[in-house]
Amino acid sequence: MYSQAKVIAGGLAHIPVLIAVFYFILTTFNKRALKFVEEAKTKKSEPKVVEPQKVAVSKTESTKVGKKKHANVPVNIYRPKTPYEGTVLENYSLLKEGAIGRVNHITFDLKDSDPFLNYVEGQSIGIMPAGEDSNGKPHKLRLYSIASTRHGDNFNGNTVSLCVRQLQYEKDGETINGVCSTYLCDIKPGDKVKITGPVGKEMLLPDEEDANIVMLATGTGIAPMRAYLRRMFEATEKEKNKWNFKGKAWLFMGAPKSANLLYEEDFQRYLNEYPDNFKYTKAISREQQNAKGGRMYIQDRVLESANELFDMIEDEKTHIYLCGLKGMEPGIDEAMTKAAEEKGLNWSELRPQLKKAGRWHVETY
Q: Greatest CA separation found in the chain?
């Protein structure tokens, strides 16, 4: 039998071993605990990665892309308080015998403007008619769409041209003439005219040379379209520009009579010289009939060309320009709605998408 002293001595001898074992267990536990905490922190700080969902986009949905910004477009070089006085170079009628109303082409000299009054196609200028109103105050300015390219009708880059219809209406049995339109139709070469501007970015042409341009115009709404077409197809313009149009241009033109068609000779020449790039569709209300036997309006031509027109509109490179009397908008909208339905499209949804993408351009008055 062991004595009590030996038992105590033996127990004391095992104490260092027990301490070592306990230390080993404690150290291991602490290491694992620290590792667990670090892993927890890492998982918490790491962002959750989610694979992006792929969505198919149709041609019409792609029009939701925002419109492009146009750089270096001059605006308000001359304001109403400090207008430029330009000299009238020419003023002549655009109508043929038997036409209705009065429409003139008027050109102003800009070479003496300082700062120089430069502009681009699709912009407008303001005209301040001479004289005073019934209250003895100067007449307010009127805006007119520019009918020339930035190089002007003479290609020297120092003129601007307008296409102006004299406004006339009946009131209490009396014929009232528009103040500014009559003033412009009556001015003569050598006269001085107060000019402001240029203004406007809504009707600018796209920069892409292979864009398609659909133009819907009535009356003097042809002004910006004339500028576009000259830029596209006039030989001297093509030489001066670093922009060589390669797309398709389609003009829908509305007029009451053939004698009221404006710039007709130029457009026919473009048709002969560029048959693959230019299409010209006329709606002459008092001389042509639509499918229902009524007068032929521009919206009727849109319906007739529904399939081809919307094939172009579905192309992301196509821009549509509408210019003329405000009263033409409802008819065009109705025609576009019907034409879109034939292609299985919803015009009320498509039009704002085109607008947002900068492909639907409207200037009516």
A: 147
Beta sheet of 212-218, edge-to-edge order: 278-284, 249-255, 212-218, 318-324, 360-364
Of the residues 144, 228, 270, 321, which is catalytic?
144
According to the CATH classification, is domain 84-199 in 3.40.50.300?
no
Paired sense of beta strands 84-93 and 103-109, if any: antiparallel
- Give the gyration radius of the chain's Cα atoms: 37
Is 145 among the catalytic positions? yes
**Pairing outcome for strands 249-255 and 212-218:** parallel
The reply to whether 185 belongs to the active site is: no
Is the pLDDT reported for residue 278 higher than 70? yes
Residue 58 catalytic? no
305 is an active site residue: no
Residue 364, SS3 per DSSP: strand
Q: What is the mean pLDDT of the chain?
A: 85
- Global pTM reads 0.81
Q: What is the mean pLDDT of residues 272-297?
A: 97
**Whole-number Å distance between alpha carbons of 333 and 57:** 25
The topology (CATH level 3) of 202-364 is: Rossmann fold (3.40.50)
Q: How far is CA 312 from CA 217, 220, 303, 316, 334, in A?
A: 18, 25, 14, 8, 18
User: 50: burial class by Cβ within 10 Å (0-12, 13-18, 19+)?
Assistant: exposed
